[in-house]
């Protein structure tokens, strides 16, 4: 029974981690892309530099969401308490 | 659903277990090395189609490295180009049936990030000298030394986790959709995986360039012969 409770709590915790962990990066990526679109619209000749910087920045922001994903996977598949 | 954090042993080489990602990595290494050797064996002044493609690739890598570092790309071309090409091909093996990308396992990504970590230190020392490189850790003031040391670890770790998380989640999602919905539905997701794989390879290479460029310093070093294995 205790084993079962730990597993149930782990799955709920993984879902919560990914769900809430995705909010911040999603908002951040939205702002970054909006700013880049704005800049490209104002200055189309700088599109190359802007999109390169945008990609790197998006990867940086996205890493936060990936961290929560990895935590969720650790909880699901490598849980020390199961 | 397989556990993405474990690897299955393919065969044993003496007492050493050889896992599937290692075997795929070796196949990729052999393939890339053979391709590089065969395609650069007869270089002509008036290039053929293959040589034009290779020259375009090298020029693009040079341009990106130059744009990022603002210095002569020659000492970094081999390392950055090889990292980009290997990560790209490794991510794209996801489309081959029965082959899982080696970058979807955390060990391969850790090895790649360790290469970047060691290369950062090596280029830093060769660019600034021992004392100069160690002095960069106390850059704004000596208070920052612990933070700068921690940054070395965390940015390497985030390189590992970024590549692992992106590629692994792509493979994982395709597996889940395949088990739920059948044969043809994962195809758009696999196309998305190709894009993600290319972007991640680009980002891994650019971040390696940024780290190495920051370590090597602003003043251009004299061009030195490449020590790394040179794929184009």
Automatic annotation (TrEMBL), chain A:
TM region positions: 54-78
Recorded GO CC terms: plasma membrane; proton-transporting ATP synthase complex; proton-transporting two-sector ATPase complex, proton-transporting domain
Cross-referenced SUPFAM superfamilies: F1F0 ATP synthase subunit C (SSF81333)
Primary location recorded for the protein, binned into one broad class: membrane
Keywords per UniProt: ATP synthesis, Cell membrane, CF(0), Hydrogen ion transport, Ion transport, Lipid-binding, Membrane, Transmembrane, Transmembrane helix, Transport
Domain named V-ATPase proteolipid subunit C-like: residues: 12-74
Record-annotated site: Reversibly protonated during proton transport: 62
Gene Ontology molecular-function annotations: lipid binding; proton-transporting ATP synthase activity, rotational mechanism
Family of this protein: Belongs to the ATPase C chain family.
Function according to Swiss-Prot or TrEMBL: Key component of the F(0) channel; it plays a direct role in translocation across the membrane. A homomeric c-ring of between 10-14 subunits forms the central stalk rotor element with the F(1) delta and epsilon subunits.
Protein name per the record: ATP synthase subunit c
Gene source species: Aliiruegeria lutimaris
From TrEMBL, chain B:
CDD domains for the chain: ATP-synt_Fo_a_6
Keyword Transport: yes
Compartment(s) where it occurs, according to its Swiss-Prot or TrEMBL record: Cell membrane; Membrane
InterPro entries the UniProt entry points to: ATP_syn_F0_a_bact/chloroplast (IPR045082), ATP_synth_F0_asu (IPR000568), F0_ATP_A_sf (IPR035908)
Main location class: membrane
Sequence similarity: Belongs to the ATPase A chain family.
Protein name: ATP synthase subunit a
Species this protein is from: Aliiruegeria lutimaris
């Amino acid at each position: 029974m205790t084993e079962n409770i730990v597993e149930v709590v782990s799955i709920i915790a993984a879902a919560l981690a990914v769900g809430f962990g995705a909010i911040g990066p999603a908002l951040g990526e939205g702002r970054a892309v909006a700013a880049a679109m704005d800049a490209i619209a104002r200055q189309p000749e700088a599109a190359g530099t802007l999109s390169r910087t945008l990609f790197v920045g998006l990867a940086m922001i996205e890493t936060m969401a990936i961290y929560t994903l990895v935590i969720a996977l650790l909880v699901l598949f490598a849980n020390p308490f199961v | 659903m397989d556990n993405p954090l474990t690897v299955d042993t393919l065969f044993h080489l003496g007492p050493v277990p050889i896992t599937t990602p290692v075997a795929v990595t070796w196949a990729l290494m052999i393939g890339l090395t053979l391709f590089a050797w065969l395609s650069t064996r007869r270089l002509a002044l008036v290039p053929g189609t293959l040589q034009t493609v290779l020259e375009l690739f090298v020029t693009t890598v040079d341009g990106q490295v130059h744009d990022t570092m603002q210095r002569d790309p020659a000492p970094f071309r081999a390392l950055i180009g090889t990292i980009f090409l290997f990560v790209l091909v490794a991510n794209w093996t996801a489309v081959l049936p029965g082959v899982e990308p080696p970058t979807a396992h955390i060990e391969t990504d850790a090895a790649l990030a360790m290469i970047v970590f060691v290369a950062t230190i090596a280029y830093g020392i060769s660019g600034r000298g021992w004392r100069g490189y160690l002095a960069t850790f106390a850059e704004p003031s000596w208070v920052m030394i612990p933070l700068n040391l921690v940054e070395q670890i965390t940015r390497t770790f985030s390189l590992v986790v970024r590549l692992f998380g992106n590629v692994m989640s792509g493979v994982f999602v395709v597996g889940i959709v395949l088990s739920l919905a059948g044969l043809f539905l994962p195809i758009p997701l696999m196309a998305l995986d190709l894009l993600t794989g290319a972007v991640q390879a680009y980002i891994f290479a650019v971040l390696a360039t940024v780290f190495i460029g920051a370590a090597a310093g602003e003043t251009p070093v004299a061009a030195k012969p490449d020590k790394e294995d040179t794929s184009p």
